[in-house]
Design a protein that fits this description.
With 311 residues, the chain is α+β, with helices and mostly antiparallel strands. Helices cover 22% and strands 41% of the residues.
Length: 311
Amino acid sequence: MILLRPLSTLLLLGLLTISGAYAADSRYRSWREDDKVQNIVDQLRDLVTEAEKERAADRRFLRDLRSLVSAYDKPWGLEVLHDSFRDDDFNHNPKWRVSSGTFFVDRETGLRSIVEETTVAATQKPKTKQPRSSGDFGVDLAAAIFGAVLESPNHKSTPAATPKPQKLTPNPAVIETTVKLSNAFSLELELRANNANEGLELGIENKGGGYWISYRPGNPGHYELLRTTPRGMSLIEQTDQGPTLDDDASHQLNWTRDTAGFMRIRLDGALLMEVSDRSFRKSFDRLMVRNLGGDFAIRELSLMGVEKGRR
């Protein structure tokens, strides 16, 4: 018979309570029941923290239990931002600011930005004249004789190769809005992409930095979760198993971060990435969208935070 310490017993009882609360179909639970479950999650998370400090249970057990608690942790009850862009304007209620590039509202697809590659003809760099010296006379004479030989009728010269045109990607199109967002958040948006030749990035930041989701086109698509600080940008997690967005179809993106710093990213309901990062403890104050190249549109966007006083 296995004897559990009192704190471990409480952890198991809390876990069973959560499981029982979620046993019924979530469609028939009222908001009061959801709030009750969240209170249980908060208490159980505190017990896990205490157990870690007192080493009251196996580390692997506590790690798995914290991960399971995070799966039920849904503290976001405060709507911070909602925009469907159906008013054909992004300059008020809420106000978005364009720092580079062009954004506009399309009645069918929402907030839209198009960043296209441009093609320019390759040109040779102009030659700059260097000051002549007294020793250059012999060199100039040899060049003149060689040029006369090339221009003679009996000499067949090789035609110069035609320079290939070069593709240039213009600067990214960037738009942002100011928010009062807690450290824990839930971001949901409906996204559509077409001709996504470079990719798209979504960022939630404060003055000290923040987190970004980066998408690069491909089949499958490449996704990264990045951390930004005044010292630069670093990779937290990445995957090449995500679906491609470059199909002109609507996709649902969900990005959550709980009060313990555990983040999950889902695309069309499927789990894309999950990772814990506690680099930032303060609240966030802006949401940013960066179009690196392609045709992207956002229709529905909802950003939820945690009310003050909730742990």
